[in-house]
Amino acid sequence: MVFGYVLLVIYIVCLLAILVYSLAQGHLTMLYLRSKRNGEQETPELPAELPFVTVQLPVYNELYVVERLIRRVVQLDYPLDKLEIQVLDDSTDESVEVAANIIAELRETGLDIQHIRRSDRTGFKAGALAFGLEIAKGEFIAIFDADFLPEKDFLLKTLPYFQDENTGLVQTRWEHLNRNYNLLTKLLSMALDAHFTIEQRGRNSNGDFMNFNGTAGVWRRECIETSGGWSAETLTEDLDLSYRAQLKGWKMKYLEGQTSPAEIPAFIQAIRSQQYRWNKGGAEVARKNFMNVMKAKLPLHVKFHALFHLFNTGIFICVFLAAFVSVPLLYFMASKGLAAELMKYAAVFFLGFFLLSGFFWITIRQRFESATKTTLWFILYFPIFLSLSMGLSLYNAIAVSEGYLGIRSPFIRTPKFNIVGDKTDVKQNKYMVSRPPMIVIFEALLAIYFLAAIVWAVSVGYYAFVPFHVLLMLGFAGITFYSIKHSVIRA
After folding, report:
1. Final residue in a domain of this structure, among 268, 289, 311
2. Which of these is catalytic: 145, 147, 193, 238?
3. How far apart are alpha carbons 232 and 151 in whole angstroms?
4. Is 238 labeled as catalytic in the residue annotation?
5. What is the structure's pLDDT at 490?
6. What angle (nearest 5°) sits at the alpha carbon of residue 403, between those of residues 399 and 407?
7. CA nearest to 134, candidates 144, 145, 123
8. Is 405 within 8 Å of 164 (Cβ atoms)?
9. Phi, psi for 56 (deg, rounded to 5)
10. Of the candidates 269, 274, 271, which has an alpha carbon nearest to the alpha carbon of residue 436?
11. Are residues 203 and 133 in the same domain?
């Protein structure tokens, strides 16, 4: 019986953590809606004298998108005598030659574009950005990852906001070139839209800490240098520098209305690598900057959301623990009389679920003019999104735990496939992974684990956990299915 109460305590603590997460997301939703009601701020005028800008393009083995990226960036509408482009190329494959040929061609037209190579990948992306910054001529630094296609007026729309000398960063919203490619891109775009609408604008509109998203933004060079520069101590160098800069007093500006189109991962192994880096990196940044935030003299709301932002990836640990212990709790509910105690806390789960549902409904609403269409899309896709997110909870919980524990790992890039729209064929792409990772075995076993729990619960008449376990079973089974399917897609 003691063991049953231990499980109950773990379960309740996890539910409370999920509730706090949901409340914070609910507050960001309120801030976002308030900001939308207040309308868009008037765009400042461009300065009479345009500043010199360096555009940095960090690339590593991007055979299928490097030409597309370079040719798009050179079309930026900006005076050529005030612009330089750095292709920070750490590649080790034939994409080096592709980039070199394009750059040589463009240099003959008078463009100031450089092909910058390092002898090794020390510091990975952060190291490449720092290396380029040392020789950059620009007062402002625009950064685009390999899968981005910036709009021609990107610089003209972002630079006016730097007339406030305290502004260190302007970040734009990601748009998705392949939103409707498959089910995974539809779900991932919903998650990214939530971040780039409610979270980023909600925080920024309230004066809370926001973050650079690693690409599609412009930095004031002075801000980077006075904040300690790029650091490879974490896998999310963008989040790390963002916090260090804001703790130094620099302001950041988020432009929801200015979009930067990009490809999003369409296959489960690419999604895994991205999720691992973001979640582990977020935990590493929390470990590094937690005490700095605690010691900083910040308004209470700024400190709360800064800490919540730092630790929000920990939600995956809570989701996985709550899910895992809920199965043995069924036994104690049935045989040891814990049902009454457990049901007291059921409302906690439903309140959190309601807040998160509203958070994502508002996110989807920004895409559709019709509330009816929004609701239908939500009803169709949100349960699937929730289920597959749960299915990734073990993988993401491991990543976050490693980050909290200080276990280091290399920067693993997310492969890009030059997918636009929903028709691109990638079967012969050399960057596709040929076999599923070992963790798929455990995810398959967890699908069986929750299926067994469902069968047993129905047999004894305890239905409280059945909806939860159905989502978990389908989620782990779905992740297992996609891991196997996408590992043989080259065949």
Report:
1. 311
2. 238
3. 29
4. yes
5. 46
6. 100
7. 123
8. no
9. -105, 130
10. 269
11. yes
Q: Give phi and psi for 58, each to the nearest 5.
A: -75, 125
CA distance readout (Å), 463 to 18, 330, 471: 22, 10, 14
CB 84 within 8 A of CB 54: yes
Question: In this structure, are strands 217-220 and 167-176 parallel, antiparallel, or unpaired?
Answer: antiparallel
| Residue 40 forms part of a structural domain | no
Q: Does 322 lie in the same domain as 303?
A: no
Asked whether residue 39 is domain-assigned, the answer is no
Catalytic one of 89, 90, 193, 240: 90
Q: Tell me how far apart the terminal alpha carbons of the chain are, to the nearest angstrom.
A: 53
Domain match, 246 and 140 both:
yes
Q: Are residues 73 and 183 in the same domain?
A: yes
Do the bridges between strand 217-220 and strand 140-143 make them parallel or antiparallel, or are there none, so unpaired?
antiparallel
Enumerate residues 6+ apart whose C-beta is below 8 A from 439: 394, 395, 398
Q: Provide the total of helices (H) and of strands (E) in the chain, helices listed first.
A: 18, 7
Spacing of C-alpha 87 from chain mean position: 24
Q: What are the mean pLDDT values of the chain's consecutive 10-residue runs (491 residues total)?
A: 80 90 96 92 86 97 95 97 97 95 96 95 95 98 97 97 97 96 96 97 97 98 98 97 98 96 93 95 97 96 97 96 91 65 63 90 95 97 97 97 94 78 63 79 98 92 87 98 79 38
321 and 299 both lie in a single domain: no
429-465 CB burial, b ≥16 within 10 A, e <16: bebbbeebeeebebbbebbebbbebbeebeeeebebb
Q: 267 and 134 in one domain? A: yes
**Distance of alpha carbon 238 from alpha carbon 252, whole angstroms:** 13
Bridge partners, residue 262, by sequence: 148, 176
Domain final residue, candidates 268, 291, 311? 311
Residues 95 and 241 in one domain: yes
User: How many CB atoms lie under 10 A from the CB of residue 47?
Assistant: 11
* pLDDT the model gives residue 185: 96
* Tokens encoding 166: 């305290």
- Range of 429's domain? 2-32+313-487
Q: What does the longest C-alpha to C-alpha distance in the chain come to?
A: 80
- pTM of the predicted model as reported, rounded to 2 decimal places: 0.94
Same domain, 299 and 322: no
Cα(295)–Cα(310) distance, rounded to whole angstroms? 15
User: What's the rounded Cα separation, in Å, for the pair 364 and 366?
Assistant: 5
Question: Residue 71 sits in a domain of what CATH number?
Answer: 3.90.550.10
Instruction: Please tell me the total count of domains within the chain.
Output: 2
Domain for residue 45, yes or no? no
Residue whose pair of structure tokens reads 């308004």 in the numeric block = 299
214 within a domain of the structure (yes/no): yes
Amino acid present at 340: A
Kindly state the helix (H) or strand (E) to which residue 129 belongs, with its residue range.
helix 124-135
